């Protein structure tokens, strides 16, 4: 029996290929926009924003290196290339997947540490430190991706035959410690850290806003808190929603027979996990006003066949990618407003002047 032959019907194969093609287009387009926007404002970019850029690089790398082969194999009704491309595909998927999870985890920790020093005017995270963290995420991912090639773990085809990943069923007897290490170090622990950090940020912001005595600023503070809470929940839920079903099916394949799972059932979590490369740009576009504005201006300029150039970054409270920084700016504004008794009158006069123009 050919292990690389599809176990699905031809119609399902074509449907899976079309779905992967759509995910590839959205992922490449969305993450390229994030990188273009980051490049346009690179001179104004804060060090922690590089983590968001790194996340876009991991998602884009996965889409470019994996999805074309998966689409072609789906429409071929059999995996293309045999063992060589299977190992390549599994290694790329594991490498970029671990790099993405590590980046999300580091990002959550950095954001939480920044939220603890909202009143400090100095930048607590230096560019050098961020570069070290980024190098650490890539080395960490590379180490895990190389383990199966060195004998701890193994790459192999998925049960439905049109994708390759870690050979979960074969690792039950040969590398059980590798399976336990994967799920603890690259799923369970990162998930706990991410959820804890983002809920800690939300709690910290809530306490900070409750301590503000100026009633005129409470609505703005609540609005900012709600937006940050939405981003935190979406990132955390998105991570868990994309990878947990795949993790459950993989664990079932390890501790039970993979033959007990119908091929089309085992395919669904695999496809769903690949959508993880899409949702981050959508979150930025939905909740970052400046990012949305710059993307619209860029697309408008491109549609008119002019030089594609994003607008100059706004020095206001909103940061287009690293949204915790905007809470830093907000906290400074609230502190100044709370410290000076006459600030409300000044703000009223300023707003009146703005209304004239």
UniProtKB/TrEMBL annotation:
Record's subcellular location: Membrane
SUPFAM superfamilies named in the record: Family A G protein-coupled receptor-like (SSF81321)
Membrane-traversing stretches: 16-39, 51-75, 87-110, 130-152, 178-207, 228-246, 266-287
One annotated GO biological process: visual perception
Domain of life, per lineage: Eukaryota
Predominant localisation class: membrane
InterPro entries the UniProt entry points to: GPCR_opsins (IPR050125), GPCR_Rhodpsn (IPR000276), GPCR_Rhodpsn_7TM (IPR017452), Peropsin (IPR002962), Retinal_BS (IPR027430)
Keyword Transmembrane on entry: yes
Coiled-coil spans in chain: none
Domain G-protein coupled receptors family 1 profile: 30-284
Cellular component annotations (GO), alphabetically ordered: membrane
GO molecular function: G protein-coupled receptor activity; photoreceptor activity
Membrane topology category: Multi-pass membrane protein
Sorted UniProt keywords: Chromophore, Disulfide bond, G-protein coupled receptor, Glycoprotein, Membrane, Photoreceptor protein, Receptor, Retinal protein, Sensory transduction, Transducer, Transmembrane, Transmembrane helix
One Pfam family from the record: 7tm_1
Family matches, as PANTHER family: OPSIN (PTHR24240)
Protein name stated in the entry: G-protein coupled receptors family 1 profile domain-containing protein
Organism this protein belongs to: Pygocentrus nattereri (Red-bellied piranha)
